[in-house]
Structures are given as C-alpha cells and as structure tokens.
Amino acid sequence: MTLFIMLLIVGGGLYVYFSSTFERNKPVITLEHNNGYWNFKKPLHIKIEDDSAVKSYKVIMKNSNGDTTLVYEQLLIPEKNIDLNIKPPRGSYSIKDKEIKIIVQAQDVSKWNFLNGNASAVEYKLVIDKKRPQVSIVNNSYKISRGGSAIVIFKVQDDNLEDIYIEGNHGKHFLAEPFYKEGFYIALLAWPVQDNSFKATVVATDVAGNIGKAYVPLYLKEKQYRLSKIKLSDKFLKGKIADLAEDFEETQGVENSIEQFKIINEDVRAKNEALIHKYTSVVPQEMISRFKIKKMYPLKNAQVVARFGDHRKYYYHGEFISEAYHLGLDLASHAMAPIKSQNGGKVVFADYNGLYGNMPIISHGLGLYTLYGHCSSLDVSEGSDVVANSKIANTGKTGYAMGDHLHFGVLVQGIEVRPQEWMDKKWIKLNINDIIKSAKKIINGK
Ligand SMILES: [Zn+2]
After folding, report:
1. What is the spatial order of strands in the sheet that 184-190 belongs to?
2. How far is the CA of 330 from the centre of ligand 1 (A)?
3. Other C-beta atoms within 10 Å of 232: how many?
4. From the CB of residue 337, how many other CB atoms can be counted at a distance below 10 Å?
5. Of 134, 152, 382, 446, which has the highest C-beta tally within 10 A?
6. Which of 181, 176, 222 lies closest to 201 in space, CA to CA?
C-alpha cells in the first residue's frame, strides 16, 4: 500500500515535472528590429513566445511623467506566439525625455509554480530621437543629359546617422563619399541612357528610423540617340559569330547561327556587362578634398567609328532577331595603336571579358571608371597604379570586334555614361570642376 502511494507520488511528480501542463519555461520576450532607439513614429515590434501559452501581457512606458500602460491584455484564448506592434503613446510629441524605459511583462498558462504559471519581465532602455536627419544640397551640376553625368555636394546633420545615399531611377542607390569637411558629402550621378527621365534624391536615415530627404535640382536635358537597324549577313554569321561561338560555354553544342548570335548578343553580353557593373559600382569611403579630372582622349588622332548609346536592332531576312545598346565610344586609328590614360588611378580589372576581349578597367575615384575593350595587349595588371598620361594597352580586335579599334567606356557607379562629356574640357570644367570649387567656397562660408 505504501509502495502504491509512493509510486503515485513519484508518478505524479514525474507527470508534473514532464507534462506540458506544468512546463517551467518563462515566456520569452524580444524587442525586434530595434537597436536601442525610438522615434515615437514607428511602432515597436515585440514578440512573446511561450512553450505552453501566454495568458496575459502588459507593456509599460516609464519616463519623467511616470508610468503609462501602452497595452494590457488578458487573453480569453491563450496563444503560444504573440506579435505586438506597440504604437507610441498619445501626446508623445510633447515628451521631452532623451531616454525612456519600456517594460514588458508576460505570464503563461502553465500550472507550475503552485498553479501560478511562469512570469517574465524585461526592461528596455530606449533613446528617444524624433529628429529627422537634416539634408541640404550645397551645390550640383546645373544640368544632366540623358546618358550623361552630373555631380552633387550636400550636407547631412544628425546625431545618430545610419545611412546616406542618393536614390536614382529604379531604386538605384548612388553612394556618396565624405567631402572636404565633417558632415559634407560628394557623389557623381548618371542618367542611364535607356531611361526616359531621371530623378535623384539624397536620402539620409538615422538609427531611430527617421528619414531626411532632399531633391537634387537638376535640369534634365533630353538627348537623342541613334536607332540602328542592322541586317545580319551569312558571311558575318558564318565568320565572326561562328568563331566567337567556339569560345563561349553558352554556345557549346548550339549549331544554328541565329541561335548562336542571339545567345552571344544577349546571354554572353549580359554576363560580360554584369562583371563590368560589379567592378565599377565600388565607391571609396575615405574623406576626399579634391577630385580633379582631366580631359580624356585615350587614342590620339582617332576616328569615331561607333557612338555611345546606339540602340542596335538586328534582323535576318527581315525578321527581328535581337537588340542591344552600344555603351561605349568606338575609336580607331592604326592597328595596335597605343592607348593612354590622361588621368591616374588604380586598375581594378585587367583580363579577358567575352565580347569586350582583353579589357582593363581603371578606377579614378568617386565611382568614376574608364574601360578599354578589344585590346591586343595590356601594359597593366589588376591592382596596379596608373600614373596620368601613361600607356596602358594597345588597340586590337579581341572579343566582338570586326576591325582593330578601341571600345572606350566611362562608368559612374556601375552605369555607362557618354564618354564625350569626359572628353570635353569645357564640359568637365563647367559641370564638375567648377561645381566642386564653388562648393568649397560655400562650405568655407565665403
Ligand atoms: Zn564598341
């Protein structure tokens, strides 16, 4: 009999110990997506989880005015997971405290603890930051043309700054570099040639979630680009295209010339351009006080053989096959002509890149890059420094090139821009160098 009672006690004890009715884990409280700041605008995300179920919870704000209950609930049907979006208290705009406390209490339905259940209480200290970052434009290029470049210098003030960028078309984020004095930034902008319009807005966010914005007042100048209809000849398909098709893994096993052309013009091109965009999207983050670019003329006594921005549509026996944009300026002089860079920089890529053949890319700072396609030989290698006016390569016809020429590309933060602007001394002075000069005067308060 005593044994039976003992077994009952032990059994009952084990039941209580292992049963979910008597679970002993406290509710777990988490304040999500928060780094210790609150702007009294965005709701606070609080998660309460419990192994049995939560039967009640309470969220209290403590500040110099005392305690305010933000939410209190006793659940008729207890829940295992509770997601709360706590809105700021009424009249929070008048709260002057720099810091407040949020206390979250929760209790579960467990019968543990002499049927009282398990209770949790967590206290969070939150810094109150209701101020949005102050963004002001110091100076910018007066205009930007389709396919062209511009520069902007701006000021951002905030105690808890988190991120600064310039939003362009299709959600593109242009990155800014700290400039000249604390709180000032500089960035190059580019209007992609395929886009009908352009808009740039400086955006600054702080850790409390406040957002400050300023629109860059650029005058938009439309520029027409050529639309070319190109007939694909059998000679071209059986010659250049058949040769290229042997080189690329994408065209292995593809026998049809039209198919080969389509794959080369679309898939291979996209892959080659993705590589270019990756290498040219990097913007240094150290503070700069000068950015001086000299007129670019990579090839002396050169003829322009194809323009930037040409929209090429390819046809075979009257049927549309494929299309592409020509995103550089093709220059030709004599075979294997020397290519020079008038601006110093760092070589970020120097290798074979499909349609572009042998191709070095040079970074000139501030997210400005130059690219040289179809080279026969290279004098530079990845990682090497380029001194202004030094020879970097020789022209050739590697990759997708008919004759010996240079495909000269200029990129701003991963976007191809019209090289002619950067080859025009007057354009550079008016749109870039003078803008920086007068920005410095404004910053110095002169
Ligand atoms: Zn080209």
Report:
1. 134-140, 149-157, 184-190, 177-178
2. 5
3. 19
4. 22
5. 152
6. 176
Ligand 1 centroid – CA 328 distance (Å) = 5
pLDDT of residue 17: 61
Q: Which residue ranges of the chain lie beneath pLDDT 50?
A: none
Structure tokens at 25: 């884990």
Q: What is the pLDDT of residue 15?
A: 64
The amino acid sitting at 95 is: I
Q: Which residues pair with 409 in a beta bridge?
A: 371
Threshold 0.85, pTM exceeds? yes
Give CA–CA dist 441/446, Å, rounded: 5
Query: Quick one: tokens of 207?
Result: 């850790």
- Closest listed residue to residue 341, CA positions, set 303, 286, 379: 379
Find the 408 Cα to ligand 1 centroid distance in Å.
7
Over the stretch 48-60, which tens digit does the pLDDT of each residue have? 999 889 999 999 9
5 token code pair:
């009672």
Nearest to 226 by CA among 147, 146, 310: 310
